[in-house]
Amino acid sequence: MIAILFVGAFVSLLNETLLNVALPSIMKEFNASASAVQWLSTGYMLVNGILIPASAFFIQKFTNRKLFIFAMTLFTAGTLLASLAPSLNVLLLARMIQASGSAMMMPLLMNVMLVSFPIERRGAAMGIFGLVMITAPAIGPTLSGWLIEHYSWRTLFDVVLPFAAITLLLAFFKLKNITPQRPIKLDILSLVLSSIGFGGLLYGFSSAGEKGWDSLLVYGPIIVGVLSLILFITRQLRLDEPLLEFRIYRYPMFALSSAISVVISMAMFSAMLLMPIYVQTLRGISPLHSGLLMLPGALVMGIMSPITGKLFDKFGARMLAVTGLSITILTTYMFSQLTLETSYGYLMMIYTLRMFGMSMVMMPVMTNGLNQLPPNMNPHGTAMNNTLQQVSGAVGSALLVTIMQNKTESEAKRLAEEAMQNLSSTVQPNAAQLSEMKTQLMNEAILHGINFSFSISVGIATVALILSLFLKRSQPAQEATRQQ
């Protein structure tokens, strides 16, 4: 049964990053602009951000069998429609349908794991879960890069479809109900406020890199999102049956693990975002080889997740988190010292080592926090973790891209002024030499921007390391009631 849930979660997570490399091909086929095609990724993420906070309600209201079959049906239908899509609008609709199924998968799987395994075996179980959570999105760009180079972008959906259909078929015959249900009502206003709040934040921060912070389409959604979230949290604290229970932050280890996870998510996105810019823009390496550079890191993370889970059961989260974050900080610092001649092999080695460090942190820290929650709070804990991961990823991406762009601009200006001073005292270059000089100066400016962003990422990871020193092994609290 766990295997069925794992495969379902794997294909839905794989689908999140599978399409990114294919966007230029889709633009060409449908004769669409980059901003229009970008909605295939942004829209998918937004639907996830809106539905994941509501997953706590769905998990408590419906049986895990019904919920998984419904989610997998939506995902499979969306995948089939995307494969046959005659226009960009139909493809966008298909992606939204896919996302509405995918959003339920991770919280549902985490909740089933917490119910299925006793606390002393949860680390090993969540380690296998980490294999799915980490490996699928990491493999996506490499797999799609290879498929796009040899086949049509529709092949990306054709590859996923059989796995989704077989998983759905197996779920009908093999899936059993193990999660407890209770008769709760959906508070519509909470759902609306949550959707506007998390959706606004995700859209605003995700658009910041492309549109700039002074755009109304960036700061507008962020302001509306923050105000909606304030109203949403206030309402949840007053309701007897909240959509998302914020009182789980009364449990210190959950609150601490949540803070560490947010900081790690922000730091993790630095390499996932900045590496492709460095490798493809500055070094001219193809998207396929750019994906291959990151593949060993993804494989190491996948191999390490089950091992890390068993180590967590034996030693607890603190030792793993401190070791993993120390490796992450060291390798991130090494990335902040890149040059225009850094070798491909060196980049691959440092990236792989960085992923090895991160594999020791994410799942042990998250599992340690969830272990302190009483059983009836598990759906809220998993929903909160998944939601915060989405939001912190978007915030971290926007922050690091903005820092990179600002540093690139200031560095380009400084280098240009220096070049002009040197030119005034030497022979004037011809047009070809000027063009070459501009390209070289711009590349150096971008490199400075990337290195500076990695330096900021070192600082972010150091915050997580300091917080991890306060981790203690968790034991489940007593069943929580609203009056406590």
Automatic annotation (TrEMBL):
Specify whether Membrane is a keyword of the entry: yes
Keywords noted in UniProt: Cell membrane, Membrane, Transmembrane, Transmembrane helix, Transport
Task: Name the CDD domains on file.
Answer: MFS_LmrB_MDR_like (cd17503)
Q: Which Pfam families match?
A: MFS_1
Q: Which InterPro entries match?
A: EmrB-like (IPR004638), MFS (IPR011701), MFS_dom (IPR020846), MFS_trans_sf (IPR036259)
Q: Does the keyword Ribonucleoprotein apply?
A: no
Topological relation to the membrane, as annotated:
Multi-pass membrane protein
Q: Domain Major facilitator superfamily (MFS) profile, which positions?
A: 1-476
> Which residues are listed as membrane-spanning?
43-60, 67-85, 97-117, 124-147, 153-172, 184-204, 216-233, 254-279, 291-312, 344-363, 445-471
PROSITE patterns, from UniProt?
MFS (PS50850)
PANTHER family attached to this UniProt entry: MAJOR FACILITATOR SUPERFAMILY MULTIDRUG TRANSPORTER MFSC
What protein family does this chain belong to? Answer: Belongs to the major facilitator superfamily. EmrB family.
Q: What is this protein called?
A: DHA2 family efflux MFS transporter permease subunit
Species per Swiss-Prot/TrEMBL record = Bacillus kandeliae
